[in-house]
């Protein structure tokens, strides 16, 4: 029985062990399955994480790329903006430069003509152009002057590059006329009554009745908003007497009846200028109101052209050609003249042939009324021969035939110079020094009949530099001014530097 029970117990134990092993095996399998699932899940999660990371990375990269692109775009926009700004600035600068290169050539003509051709050119435009030419060194300045009229006239007498600029006494005012004094006083009244300038008082004799009344008019305020539309100095024959000059004005101001026209007679006795030559106004002789509340349109003359870019000394020479110009600047002088003609400042000479004659003709056409202290006509001939020496060199070098314009046709001088060129001996001609000796110039002869030209030169057959002195005989031509009839060589010798 015990054996039976023991056997049953053994069988039961055996079955239990097998069952435990199976359960254990199942458990292991389940554990393995769970582990595999966990691994798979972890792998999946890892893959998901990687995918997420990759997506995140890609997205981040895309975002960065987009941001970078946006940033680059912003930088590009900024660059473009800067470039645009620079471009705009450059454009503005270019525009400014372009504007600065444009001048009112009628104002330039006004100053060049010594205030002889200023019709319709506003006073402020005249002053601005005068200052521009002064600052560029084209005009000199006489220190004794204290009105715009005297400034301009003084500048024409004291061109700063001239060796003889001091020939006019520094303690004297430049010679002006009563007409000009009245005209520019009237023009300055606009700025004076409007509180912009005291320049008008410079034309008046201090303490005179006209001085006092002008000052009182301003204090009263009745002449505020003064506007001058036109002023004309009446011809001498229309004036009341020899000591009276009349002007007609068109103007308006705070107390006028619209635009008015009046006529004013100034008392201008001969003693109205002091010992220093300064002309000043002292009294009004008569005043007549001609029209009130009239329709009037101001005529302003403006014409813009390119500023003359020739050197200042060359422009100065054209402006003040009656004085001595630099002998080594003939090319520059011609360029200055050509530019003045091209931009409309000077009218083109239609009859004259040589450059000196062209310059004189052009200036004559704009009423070039030089107010000189004494006879300066010798200087015209100095300039003439400087140009002649240059053109002679160009002629022998087969570059220009302009020297022919200086010679009287069929004269001894004409035949000799043409023959010289034909020989070829004067090729490679060069001038090193040109001096015009005007000792033979006679102020009593008009024009001078003789001038001496001294040159240091060389050419194809001279072997070295030589110095010669030649006496020229001249005649006056109505168009060209001067014509050479003949010449005589006074000396010719080697030049030792």
Automatic annotation (TrEMBL):
Domain of life: Bacteria
UniProt name for this protein: Uncharacterized protein
Region (Disordered): 20-102
Positions with biased composition (Acidic residues): 33-55, 63-86
């Amino acid at each position: 029985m015990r054996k039976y029970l023991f056997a049953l117990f053994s069988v039961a134990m055996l079955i239990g062990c097998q069952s435990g092993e199976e359960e254990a095996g199942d458990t292991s399998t389940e554990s393995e399955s769970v582990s595999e699932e966990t691994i798979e899940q972890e792998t999946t999660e890892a893959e998901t994480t990687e995918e997420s990371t990759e997506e995140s990375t890609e997205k981040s990269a895309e975002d960065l790329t987009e941001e970078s692109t946006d940033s680059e775009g912003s930088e590009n926009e900024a660059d473009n903006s800067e470039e645009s700004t620079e471009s705009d600035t450059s454009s503005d600068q270019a525009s400014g430069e372009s504007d600065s290169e444009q001048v009112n050539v009628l104002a330039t003509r006004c100053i060049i003509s010594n205030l002889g051709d200023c019709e319709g050119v506003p006073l402020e435009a005249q002053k601005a152009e005068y200052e521009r030419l002064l600052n560029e060194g084209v005009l000199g300045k006489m220190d004794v002057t204290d009105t715009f009229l005297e400034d301009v006239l003084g500048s024409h007498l004291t061109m700063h590059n001239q060796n003889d600029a001091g020939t006019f006494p520094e303690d004297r005012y430049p010679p002006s006329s009563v007409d000009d004094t009245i005209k520019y006083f009237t023009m300055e009244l606009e700025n004076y009554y409007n509180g912009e300038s005291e320049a008008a008082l410079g034309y008046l004799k201090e303490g005179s009745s006209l001085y006092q009344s002008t000052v009182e008019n301003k204090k009263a305020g009745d002449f505020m908003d003064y506007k001058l539309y036109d002023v004309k100095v009446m011809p001498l024959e229309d004036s009341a007497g020899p000591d009276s000059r009349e002007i007609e004005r068109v103007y308006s101001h705070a107390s006028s009846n619209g635009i008015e026209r009046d006529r004013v007679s100034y008392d201008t006795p001969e003693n109205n200028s002091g010992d220093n030559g300064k002309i000043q106004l002292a009294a009004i002789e008569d005043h007549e109101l001609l029209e009130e509340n009239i329709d009037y349109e101001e005529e302003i003359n403006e014409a813009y052209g390119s500023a003359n870019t020739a050197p200042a000394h060359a422009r100065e020479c054209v402006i003040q050609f009656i004085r001595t110009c630099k002998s080594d600047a003939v090319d520059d002088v011609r360029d200055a003249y050509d530019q003045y003609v091209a931009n409309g400042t000077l009218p083109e000479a239609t009859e004259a042939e040589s450059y000196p004659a062209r310059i004189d003709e052009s200036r004559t056409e704009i009423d070039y009324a030089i107010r000189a202290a004494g006879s300066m006509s010798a200087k015209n001939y100095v300039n003439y021969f400087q140009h002649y020496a240059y053109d002679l060199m160009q002629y022998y070098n087969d570059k220009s035939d302009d020297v022919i314009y200086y010679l009287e046709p069929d004269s001894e001088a004409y035949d000799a110079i043409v023959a010289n060129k034909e020989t070829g001996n004067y090729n490679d001609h060069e001038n090193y020094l040109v001096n015009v000796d005007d000792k033979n110039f006679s102020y009593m002869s008009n024009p001078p009949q003789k001038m001496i030209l001294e040159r240091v030169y060389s050419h194809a057959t001279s072997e070295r530099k030589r110095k010669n002195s030649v006496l020229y005989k001249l005649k006056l031509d109505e168009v060209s001014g001067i014509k050479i009839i003949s010449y005589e060589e006074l000396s010719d010798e080697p030049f030792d530097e």
